[in-house]
Specification:
This protein has 730 residues and is mostly beta strands. 8% of the residues lie in helices and 28% in strands. The protein contains seven helices and 43 strands. A hairpin with a 5-residue loop joins strand 41 and strand 42. Belongs to the bacterial PQQ dehydrogenase family.
């Protein structure tokens, strides 16, 4: 679990960087998590539990440029920044915009080339140097694998900072960096962390095949772009913990990447890096060992990249149990003293509360015996670390007794799936199998995901939203020897994918944990199922996005796939206010002080994410308490119909469906499908599936939400190719 490599002293950032980094106003939102500590907390006090019901949308900003002729709206999970009363927002149309936070008026726009896009869910903010040095900058990643800086005031690239090509030979391991035919990807899909004058980047990589780009974390000079340090996520020969990889299994190993958000203790100069699973993340026959630093929270010296300590939350991961949640810096009250701590959570929903300086757990963690694998050659780790407190915030397994009975139709559908597909139900931590599909909860999407949690230090509560989405998984191999999910209906265990899960509700929750005593303070369903009768609708919904906590005791959150934006009482979990948006807000809301002195709350409403929510809107919606005579912005809740392709592509002969799932079927879109659909998984993960046209639309939307490069003018053609060659009735 935990290792510490030295006696830790207090680390200080450079004087210029530290002074600037701590000079932000209470009304600013300077990082993806509100600040580099990942607290998602606003100190503003204008909006309270007593008046939140009066909140109205006061202005909106359409992400789609006015000059665009495309009928399709692009999805987004972006969190804007708010600095000095201005908003800075990246759009799915390849643009960064600076907006007046009080009116939405555009101050400047930066546009990428048409063949590129902005990767990720947030921007990094560097406050610059005092005394006439470099001015404040924004940092972001592109889908072409670059790190770009913009001057905060003008939106222009600084003359002394050229775009950084992140796909260097050292990290690419001999792959081609995202282009056809290999399909490997390497891009930033979370905001870079900023620590003093260092910009720290992780990366999104493919989940299979096993060889590909490295998940190394790197630090860059915010002033010049110079590479300052590299931390190898898979230790190399001669490096500490290299022995956790048997033989040459470390070589060219992909995965073990920080695809989610990092956090920074600015006073101590520590960056906390949450690493994901190794590739392939469900089978480990080729990588015996604990596989460090996979599934670990690693503390590094932010200036040098030097290892300080690590805590591994899953040994030898064969379930895709990444650490998707941004670490949150918290304060734990113990025995009359306050302990600086960091909260880390993987997809299981267990919260690990660790001493920020040493990595030592503040609640006991027990190495608990776990089931063996039935797969030849798989050496499942015999124990896994389970904290004595807090308890997990989601269920850890299902049985037939848990099957949904919400409606007769859902109950019949789920029973039929179990019988017709030969589905079994996995015990907690049971390894996956090759002889039958198994239902696993938490599934591959969690539990929690990248939205992270919010920390109210005054009340000592850590608040996080979670989904209860079981996965159906059966391992198989394609003709090239690549493992993939070969189940008859892989992905979610439900009716219509994630729309109606096959277990009893709740299907999504919002939970508050008291971090000092390790108890759950409250837990409530998050979201409603509109298609059900009114008396049955409060099921909770699958969700992704993050919460926002305020000093007045409010938690704001979108996240759920029911297109609602809500406010809850932080102390009790009682829902106080709800607003229906034009599309689901799979993003994190922010609160800020406008230049007019008013407190605002803003959230991106644009659907998408791995839930595949319809892109029925693509806008930023900004709320405030109404002034006398002020009326709500009418466009805030407007939903647009999702365009449906009028002409179906010509039907291809049935022989086009290849018996070998390792290859795509012939056709005009074959080459593009290979490039777009294999940026994360091997071809068989796509070609083994059979879906209706509507489900393929949702699948491609989900791929785009994950970062697949599908230009708007190729979307319908790709859906036609997939629906024609891999239809549900074959």
């Amino acid at each position: 679990m935990r290792q510490t490599g030295w006696k830790i002293a207090v680390l200080m950032l450079s004087a210029a960087g530290a002074a600037a980094a701590t000079s932000g106003r209470d009304g600013d939102w300077t990082g993806f998590g509100g600040d580099e500590a990942g607290t998602r907390y606003s100190a503003l006090r204008d909006i309270t539990p007593a008046n939140v019901r009066r909140l109205i949308p006061v202005w909106t900003f359409e992400l789609k440029p006015q000059e665009s002729n495309s009928p399709r709206l692009l999805v987004s999970s972006m969190t804007p920044l708010a600095i000095g009363g201005m908003l800075y927002l990246a759009t799915p149309y390849g643009r960064i915009v600076a907006l007046d936070g009080a009116t939405g008026a555009v101050t400047w726009t930066y546009a990428l080339p048409a063949d590129d896009g902005i990767a990720g869910r947030g921007l990094g903010y560097w406050p610059g140097e005092r005394g006439g040095g470099a001015s404040p900058r924004l940092f972001f990643g592109t889908r072409s694998g670059q790190l770009i800086a913009l001057d905060l005031a003008t939106g222009k690239p600084p003359a002394d900072f050229a775009p950084i090509q992140l796909r260097t030979a050292e990290v690419m391991n001999g792959t081609n960096g995202g282009g056809f035919p290999a399909g490997y990807t390497y891009q930033i899909n979370s905001a870079p962390a900023i620590a003093g004058n260092v910009v720290i980047t992780g990366a999104r990589l493919q989940e299979s095949p096993v060889e590909g780009p490295a998940g190394d974390v790197r630090g860059w000079d915010a002033r010049t772009g110079k590479l300052l340090w590299t931390f190898h996520s898979v230790p190399r020969p001669g490096e500490r913990f290299h022995g956790t990889w048997q033989g040459d299994s470390w070589a060219k190993r992909s995965g073990v990447n920080a695809w989610s958000s990092m956090s920074v203790d600015e006073a101590r100069g520590i960056v906390f890096v949450p690493f994901g699973a190794p590739a392939y993340d469900r089978i480990g026959v080729d990588r015996a060992g604990a596989n460090l630093f996979a599934n670990s929270l690693v503390a590094l010296d932010a200036r040098t990249g030097r290892y300080l300590w690590h805590f591994q939350t899953v040994h030898h991961d064969i379930w895709d149990l990444d650490l998707p949640v941004q670490p949150t810096l918290i304060e734990v009250r113990r025995g009359g003293r306050t302990v600086p701590a960091v909260a880390a959570m993987n997809k299981t929903g267990y919260l690990f509360v660790l001493d920020r300086v040493t990595g030592k757990p503040l609640f006991p963690v027990r190495e608990t015996p776990m089931p063996k694998s039935s797969l030849d050659g798989e050496q499942a780790w015999p124990t896994q670390p389970i904290p004595a407190a807090p308890p997990p915030v989601i269920r850890q397994s299902l049985t037939t007794d848990d099957l949904a009975t919400v409606t007769p139709e859902l109950a019949a559908h789920c029973r039929a799936r179990v019988e017709s597909e030969g589905i079994g139900f996995a015990a907690p931590w049971e390894p996956l199998r090759t002889d039958r599909p198994m239902v696993r909860l938490p599934g591959s999407g969690g539990g929690p995901n990248w939205g992270g949690g919010a920390y109210d230090g005054k009340r000592g509560l850590y608040v996080i939203n979670t989904s209860e989405l079981p996965s159906v998984e059966k391992m198989g191999k394609d003709a090239k020897g690549n493992w993939y999910n070969a189940g008859p209906q892989p992905s979610w265990f439900g009716m219509g994918g994630a729309r109606m899960p096959c277990q009893r509700p709740p299907w999504g929750n919002l939970t508050a944990i008291d971090v000092s005593n390790g108890r759950i303070a409250w837990q409530v369903p998050l979201g409603v199922t509109d298609s059900l009768p009114a008396a049955l609708q409060k099921t909770g919904r699958p969700n992704v996005g993050g919460p926002l906590a305020t000093a007045t005791g409010l938690v704001f959150i979108g996240a759920s796939d029911d297109s609602r934006f809500r406010a809850f009482d932080t102390a009790t979990g009682r829902e106080l206010w709800t607003f229906r948006l034009g599309a689901s807000a799979h993003a994190t809301p922010i609160s800020y002080r406008g230049r007019d002195g008013r407190q605002y709350v803003a959230v991106v409403s644009a659907g998408g994410s791995y839930l595949g929510s319809p892109g029925t809107a693509s806008r930023l919606v900004v709320f405030a308490l109404p002034r006398q005579g002020e009326r709500p912005a009418a466009s805030a809740s407007v939903a647009q119909a999702v365009p449906v392709e009028a002409k179906r592509a010509a039907v291809v002969a049935a022989a086009a469906v290849r018996s070998d799932p390792a290859s795509f079927a012939p056709g005009a879109e074959k080459a593009f499908a290979e490039k777009a659909c294999t940026s994360c998984h091997v071809a068989a993960q796509v070609t083994s599936q059979r879906k209706t046209r509507a489900d393929w639309v949702a699948t491609v939307e989900k791929m785009v939400g994950f970062g697949a490069q599908v230009p708007d003018d190729r979307f319908d053609a790709l859906v036609s190719y997939l629906a024609t060659n891999y239809p549900a009735d074959r």
